[in-house]
């Protein structure tokens, strides 16, 4: 007996039974959950407020961002991660932590984001970029 028709017949029988379909769905969702939450190599970010899919944490800032950031730093930690649209941002609200970051990790945090508009307007020459790394 061929294996193909046997598998096809058992698949048809499986689809008729709602319990088996539900079991397969639960197993599939469990696998996706385990794969998503326990994979290695996931970067560890500081605590962050809940975020929305496209705008990230922008809704948390409100009309007075300085007060909102102060309230968020009290609720989470003096160092927190905010996803501001497409710009992932680390906010430091403690003077001691800011001093430590500026003193020891100044090269890592001193970059500026490149925009498509600047690349298009200046033909990727970065004439107006003033980070001190490129000389014109």
Describe this entry's structure for a reader.
Helices cover 45% and strands 9% of the residues. A two-stranded antiparallel sheet has the order 1-2. It has helices spanning 3-16, 18-37, 65-75, 95-104, 116-121; strands spanning 79-84, 87-92. The protein has five helices and two strands; from the N terminus they run H-H-H-E-E-H-H.
Number of domains: 2
Strand content: 5-15%
Low-confidence stretches: none
The CA-CA distance between the termini, in Å, is 76 Å
Q: How many alpha or pi helices?
A: 5
Total DSSP E strands:
2
Q: Give a short account of the largest sheet.
A: 2 strands, antiparallel
How would the global form be characterised? Answer: elongated
The strand line-up of the biggest sheet is 1-2
Summarize the helix and strand pattern as letters.
Answer: HHHEEHH
The Rg value, from CA coordinates, equals: 25 Å
Report helical residue fraction. Answer: 40-55%
Average pLDDT, to the nearest integer? Answer: 76
Look at the helices and sheets and give the structural class. mainly alpha
